[in-house]
Amino acid sequence: MKDFSKYQTQELHAKDLKHNMHPFTDFATFKEEGSLIMAESEGAYVYDTEGNKYLDGIAGLWCVNIGYANEEMGEAMAEQTRRIPYYSSFGHLTTPPAVELSEKLVSLAPSNLNHVFYGTGGSMSNDTAVRMIHFYFNRLGKKDKKQIITRTDGYHGSTYLAMSLTGVEYDHIGFDLAPDLVHRVSAPNVYRRPDGMTEAEFCDFLVDELEQKILAIGPERVAAFFAEPIAGAGGVLVPPAGYHKRIADVCKKYEVFLVSDEVVTAFGRLGEMFSSESVFGFQPDIITCAKGLTSGYIPLSANLISDEIYDVISVPQAKGAMFTHGFTYSGHPVSCAVGLKNIEIMERMDLCNHVKKVGKYFENQLKEKISSLPIVGDVRGSHFMMCVENVANKETKELLPAEAEIGNRIAAKCEEAGVLIRPLAHKNIMSPPLILNVQEVDTIVETLHKGICDVQDELIREGLW
Ligand code: PMP
To answer: Which positions make up the signal peptide (predicted)?
Structure first.
């Protein structure tokens, strides 16, 4: 039995409000309603300080792939901490877990990616990719080849540079972006594609748009294109069939590096360890990943880098010339030990095959049971990466008024019923731990169904729909 009496919820709330500044927070609501303090966990469930139990339909934040409170993970962390809890990996230094994890990651990654560089989060990983690519072209004397192309509604992180890559315009409000660096092309949003276009025509449009963008900037000035295999925080956008392969061909044609941001899609969420090649059939020049790499148990990110890039960056130059990029916690031994254990557990549990079955069931159940609801415009995604987009009108796809707070309302109804799903403006996102069983899938789908129905009734009563 878990003991929740040790948590002084009111005191924690007061201290939290006073001193703990939360990221991505609507302060008006937060200051009025306070926080929800998660204190304990097991499997696919988390508990707040008062002992309320929630089935976590979002795995924290697309993170906890193997589920919560895994004893072996705790033990791996403790053991490495007792051996050597920290050492730098600058210069010639390293530790056994960093070496072993690198070899393991390379064995799982597309065959052209044979080198690993570590950081502590997805944003850092994407920042690192930009710096590596700039360094690469500088070394080749192509000093003008620096511009980056990303997509509307792509999410790449929250540091200055990663947020400049991010194409979710809502996230830019009130901030500045890195000047003269990033260019945007359209999101592969099949649901909201231009009227009258087939999915195949939309794919042609997107591929052509990227090529025209490269030509307009000048191929000699374009260094890289960043894309998530399935855009997550931008609304779980599954691109039209064939998109990634064709995008990769355009990039290759103009010597533009393709960075596949697999911060969410790697480590089993779509049923494969990496999605770029195994799910979508293309070979990127760099994969950035984090989150599921350690199931979120400890911060760790990795850049998987092609031989082509590594060979130029690492070619010996004059003595003393360096690749002056890296972090105190690059290759952190405890993080790497946890990453290794996480992959070992995933392989032992055959978690990717589990996702291929139960994740597919989740996808199918959501599409089957939720799509027909009057307020639902689209149910999309793949396996354990899903989104429900709510609309005022299914035909016109017109949105509900902002004051309907549709995403928040549906998430709140589900939370009251003990299921966590994520609100994102007029959408709701789900990315549960990959260990979910069929009954837990049914619970999420049924709870969401009831939550949406209740909200529909409420909106009618309030005259908002
Ligand atoms: N890329 C993607 C696709 C992400 O979803 C995220 C985080 N949600 C990031 C990058 C940034 O990762 P972090 O928050 O660890 O910096």
So the answer is: none
